[in-house]
Amino acid sequence: MKSFVWIPIVALLLSACSDQGGEFVDKKPGDEAPVVQQPQATAQSPHGAMMHGMGVQPPDVDKSVTIEGTQVKIGDLAFAVDATWVSQETTSAMRAAQFQLPGVEGEAPGELILYRGIGGSNDANIQRWVQQIQQPDGSDSATKAKIETSESGEFKIMTLDVSGSFTATMMAGGGASFPEARMLAIAVEGPGGPYHFKAIGPAKTMEQWKPAFDALAASIKKAE
Predict the structure, then answer these.
(1) How far is the CA of 105 from the CAs of 32, 108, 178, 203, 205, in angstroms?
(2) For 57-68, what is the mean pLDDT?
(3) Are 112 and 118 in contact (CB under 8 A)?
(4) pTM higher than 0.70, yes or no?
(5) Mean pLDDT: which of 5-19, 148-162, 165-179 is highest?
(6) Residue 72 forms beta bridges with which residues?
(7) CA dihedral over 45, 102, 115, 207, signed as positive or negative
Protein backbone atom coordinates (compact mmCIF):
# COMPACT_ATOMS: atom_id res chain seq x y z
CA MET A 1 0.00 0.00 0.00
CA LYS A 2 1.38 3.34 -1.07
CA SER A 3 1.78 6.06 1.50
CA PHE A 4 0.80 9.70 0.86
CA VAL A 5 2.39 12.78 2.35
CA TRP A 6 -0.18 15.46 3.25
CA ILE A 7 1.01 19.01 2.73
CA PRO A 8 -1.29 21.68 4.12
CA ILE A 9 -2.69 23.93 1.37
CA VAL A 10 -1.59 26.98 3.33
CA ALA A 11 1.98 25.78 3.21
CA LEU A 12 1.80 25.39 -0.57
CA LEU A 13 0.48 28.92 -0.97
CA LEU A 14 3.16 30.34 1.27
CA SER A 15 5.82 28.49 -0.68
CA ALA A 16 4.53 29.74 -4.04
CA CYS A 17 4.36 33.31 -2.78
CA SER A 18 7.91 33.09 -1.45
CA ASP A 19 9.22 31.71 -4.77
CA GLN A 20 7.74 34.71 -6.61
CA GLY A 21 9.03 37.28 -4.15
CA GLY A 22 5.54 38.31 -3.05
CA GLU A 23 3.84 38.52 0.29
CA PHE A 24 0.43 38.03 1.75
CA VAL A 25 -1.57 41.10 2.63
CA ASP A 26 -4.30 40.85 5.19
CA LYS A 27 -7.10 42.91 3.56
CA LYS A 28 -9.99 44.09 5.61
CA PRO A 29 -13.49 44.88 4.34
CA GLY A 30 -13.51 48.33 2.73
CA ASP A 31 -9.84 48.19 1.65
CA GLU A 32 -10.80 47.82 -2.00
CA ALA A 33 -10.13 50.83 -4.27
CA PRO A 34 -13.32 52.88 -4.73
CA VAL A 35 -15.03 52.85 -8.11
CA VAL A 36 -15.06 56.32 -9.64
CA GLN A 37 -18.41 57.21 -11.15
CA GLN A 38 -18.08 59.28 -14.33
CA PRO A 39 -20.50 62.20 -14.78
CA GLN A 40 -22.84 62.03 -17.74
CA ALA A 41 -23.36 64.44 -20.60
CA THR A 42 -26.79 66.08 -20.69
CA ALA A 43 -28.83 68.04 -23.19
CA GLN A 44 -27.92 71.15 -21.21
CA SER A 45 -24.21 70.36 -21.43
CA PRO A 46 -23.19 68.68 -24.70
CA HIS A 47 -19.58 68.58 -23.52
CA GLY A 48 -20.45 66.44 -20.49
CA ALA A 49 -18.99 67.26 -17.10
CA MET A 50 -15.53 65.92 -17.89
CA MET A 51 -12.85 67.36 -20.08
CA HIS A 52 -13.17 66.17 -23.67
CA GLY A 53 -10.17 65.38 -25.82
CA MET A 54 -7.71 67.55 -23.91
CA GLY A 55 -4.33 67.10 -22.27
CA VAL A 56 -3.77 66.79 -18.54
CA GLN A 57 -4.36 69.84 -16.39
CA PRO A 58 -2.03 70.56 -13.43
CA PRO A 59 -4.04 70.59 -10.17
CA ASP A 60 -2.49 73.85 -8.96
CA VAL A 61 -3.51 76.00 -11.95
CA ASP A 62 -5.42 79.09 -10.82
CA LYS A 63 -8.71 79.10 -12.74
CA SER A 64 -10.11 82.21 -11.07
CA VAL A 65 -12.15 84.30 -13.49
CA THR A 66 -13.32 87.90 -13.12
CA ILE A 67 -16.41 88.91 -15.09
CA GLU A 68 -17.49 92.55 -15.20
CA GLY A 69 -20.30 93.03 -17.67
CA THR A 70 -18.95 91.72 -20.97
CA GLN A 71 -15.30 91.95 -19.90
CA VAL A 72 -13.60 88.78 -18.68
CA LYS A 73 -10.16 88.25 -17.13
CA ILE A 74 -8.34 85.04 -16.33
CA GLY A 75 -4.65 84.89 -15.52
CA ASP A 76 -2.85 87.24 -17.91
CA LEU A 77 -5.65 87.05 -20.49
CA ALA A 78 -8.51 89.48 -21.06
CA PHE A 79 -11.33 89.23 -23.59
CA ALA A 80 -14.94 90.28 -24.21
CA VAL A 81 -18.07 88.13 -24.57
CA ASP A 82 -21.43 88.94 -26.11
CA ALA A 83 -23.81 90.70 -23.72
CA THR A 84 -26.52 88.07 -24.27
CA TRP A 85 -24.35 85.09 -23.37
CA VAL A 86 -25.25 83.74 -19.95
CA SER A 87 -22.46 83.04 -17.47
CA GLN A 88 -23.13 79.78 -15.61
CA GLU A 89 -21.69 78.00 -12.61
CA THR A 90 -19.08 75.55 -13.87
CA THR A 91 -20.11 71.89 -13.79
CA SER A 92 -16.57 70.51 -13.54
CA ALA A 93 -13.40 71.44 -11.67
CA MET A 94 -11.59 71.31 -15.02
CA ARG A 95 -13.55 74.31 -16.30
CA ALA A 96 -12.54 77.87 -15.55
CA ALA A 97 -15.79 79.34 -16.86
CA GLN A 98 -18.76 78.44 -19.02
CA PHE A 99 -21.38 80.40 -20.90
CA GLN A 100 -24.68 79.41 -22.47
CA LEU A 101 -25.24 80.71 -25.99
CA PRO A 102 -29.03 81.16 -26.42
CA GLY A 103 -30.68 78.89 -28.97
CA VAL A 104 -32.31 80.28 -32.11
CA GLU A 105 -35.27 79.18 -34.25
CA GLY A 106 -36.34 76.61 -31.72
CA GLU A 107 -32.89 75.02 -31.58
CA ALA A 108 -31.09 74.04 -28.36
CA PRO A 109 -28.56 76.51 -26.93
CA GLY A 110 -24.84 76.23 -27.48
CA GLU A 111 -22.21 76.10 -24.76
CA LEU A 112 -18.85 77.83 -24.50
CA ILE A 113 -16.26 76.39 -22.11
CA LEU A 114 -13.05 78.12 -21.02
CA TYR A 115 -10.07 76.09 -19.79
CA ARG A 116 -6.72 77.24 -18.41
CA GLY A 117 -3.45 75.34 -18.12
CA ILE A 118 -4.39 72.26 -20.14
CA GLY A 119 -1.38 70.60 -21.77
CA GLY A 120 -0.69 70.32 -25.47
CA SER A 121 0.21 72.78 -28.21
CA ASN A 122 -2.35 74.89 -30.05
CA ASP A 123 -2.10 72.69 -33.12
CA ALA A 124 -2.31 69.42 -31.16
CA ASN A 125 -5.53 70.42 -29.43
CA ILE A 126 -7.10 71.92 -32.55
CA GLN A 127 -6.40 68.74 -34.53
CA ARG A 128 -7.82 66.63 -31.69
CA TRP A 129 -11.01 68.66 -31.66
CA VAL A 130 -11.38 68.36 -35.43
CA GLN A 131 -11.52 64.58 -35.07
CA GLN A 132 -14.43 64.88 -32.63
CA ILE A 133 -16.60 65.94 -35.57
CA GLN A 134 -17.70 63.30 -38.09
CA GLN A 135 -18.80 63.97 -41.65
CA PRO A 136 -22.02 62.38 -43.03
CA ASP A 137 -20.13 60.99 -46.02
CA GLY A 138 -17.38 59.52 -43.86
CA SER A 139 -14.71 61.90 -45.14
CA ASP A 140 -11.99 63.34 -42.92
CA SER A 141 -13.21 66.43 -41.05
CA ALA A 142 -9.71 67.89 -41.43
CA THR A 143 -10.57 68.56 -45.08
CA LYS A 144 -13.64 70.56 -44.03
CA ALA A 145 -12.23 72.42 -41.02
CA LYS A 146 -11.31 76.08 -41.24
CA ILE A 147 -8.22 76.80 -39.15
CA GLU A 148 -6.60 80.22 -38.88
CA THR A 149 -3.67 81.61 -36.88
CA SER A 150 -3.01 85.11 -35.63
CA GLU A 151 -1.20 86.99 -32.89
CA SER A 152 -2.20 89.57 -30.31
CA GLY A 153 0.81 91.00 -28.52
CA GLU A 154 2.54 88.07 -26.79
CA PHE A 155 -0.34 85.69 -27.51
CA LYS A 156 -0.37 83.16 -30.34
CA ILE A 157 -3.93 82.36 -31.36
CA MET A 158 -5.36 79.50 -33.41
CA THR A 159 -9.07 79.32 -34.26
CA LEU A 160 -11.21 76.44 -35.50
CA ASP A 161 -14.55 76.29 -37.28
CA VAL A 162 -15.86 72.84 -38.23
CA SER A 163 -19.34 71.39 -38.78
CA GLY A 164 -20.69 67.85 -38.82
CA SER A 165 -21.96 65.23 -36.40
CA PHE A 166 -20.76 65.43 -32.81
CA THR A 167 -20.88 62.58 -30.30
CA ALA A 168 -19.79 63.11 -26.70
CA THR A 169 -17.36 60.26 -26.00
CA MET A 170 -16.67 58.52 -22.71
CA MET A 171 -13.87 61.00 -22.07
CA ALA A 172 -16.56 63.68 -22.13
CA GLY A 173 -18.55 61.63 -19.64
CA GLY A 174 -21.50 60.55 -21.75
CA GLY A 175 -22.96 59.73 -25.15
CA ALA A 176 -25.16 62.62 -26.29
CA SER A 177 -25.26 62.83 -30.10
CA PHE A 178 -25.74 65.93 -32.27
CA PRO A 179 -26.14 65.06 -35.97
CA GLU A 180 -25.95 68.67 -37.17
CA ALA A 181 -23.46 70.43 -34.93
CA ARG A 182 -20.88 73.14 -35.30
CA MET A 183 -17.76 73.61 -33.21
CA LEU A 184 -16.00 76.94 -32.78
CA ALA A 185 -12.78 76.90 -30.80
CA ILE A 186 -9.79 79.04 -29.88
CA ALA A 187 -6.42 77.86 -28.55
CA VAL A 188 -4.15 80.52 -27.05
CA GLU A 189 -0.48 80.23 -26.09
CA GLY A 190 1.12 83.05 -24.13
CA PRO A 191 1.60 84.60 -20.68
CA GLY A 192 -0.11 82.60 -17.94
CA GLY A 193 -1.45 80.11 -20.48
CA PRO A 194 -2.29 78.10 -22.35
CA TYR A 195 -5.96 79.02 -22.58
CA HIS A 196 -8.62 77.13 -24.52
CA PHE A 197 -12.11 78.15 -25.63
CA LYS A 198 -14.43 75.48 -27.00
CA ALA A 199 -18.00 76.14 -28.10
CA ILE A 200 -20.38 73.59 -29.56
CA GLY A 201 -24.08 73.41 -30.31
CA PRO A 202 -26.65 72.99 -33.07
CA ALA A 203 -25.45 74.34 -36.41
CA LYS A 204 -28.20 76.99 -36.62
CA THR A 205 -27.48 78.25 -33.11
CA MET A 206 -23.75 78.44 -33.74
CA GLU A 207 -24.25 80.20 -37.07
CA GLN A 208 -26.09 82.94 -35.17
CA TRP A 209 -23.18 83.34 -32.75
CA LYS A 210 -20.28 83.02 -35.19
CA PRO A 211 -19.77 86.83 -35.49
CA ALA A 212 -19.81 87.19 -31.68
CA PHE A 213 -17.31 84.33 -31.35
CA ASP A 214 -15.04 85.99 -33.92
CA ALA A 215 -15.33 89.21 -31.93
CA LEU A 216 -14.23 87.33 -28.80
CA ALA A 217 -11.13 86.04 -30.60
CA ALA A 218 -10.33 89.52 -31.88
CA SER A 219 -10.70 91.00 -28.37
CA ILE A 220 -8.03 88.79 -26.78
CA LYS A 221 -5.28 90.86 -25.16
CA LYS A 222 -2.95 91.07 -22.17
CA ALA A 223 -4.87 91.73 -18.96
CA GLU A 224 -4.05 95.03 -17.27
Answers:
(1) 51, 9, 16, 11, 8
(2) 79
(3) no
(4) yes
(5) 148-162
(6) 67, 79
(7) positive
Environment class of 61 (CB within 10 Å of its CB; exposed 0-12, middle 13-18, buried 19+) = middle
Nearest to 216 by CA among 101, 103, 116: 101
Q: Is 180 exposed, middle or buried (0-12, 13-18, 19+ CB in 10 A)?
A: middle
Q: Is 24 exposed, middle or buried (0-12, 13-18, 19+ CB in 10 A)?
A: exposed
Average pLDDT, integer, range 163-192: 78
Task: Kindly provide the residue ranges of all beta strands, DSSP E only, lying in the chain, ordered along the sequence.
Answer: 65-68, 71-74, 77-80, 86-88, 97-101, 110-116, 133-134, 146-152, 155-167, 177-189, 195-202, 221-222
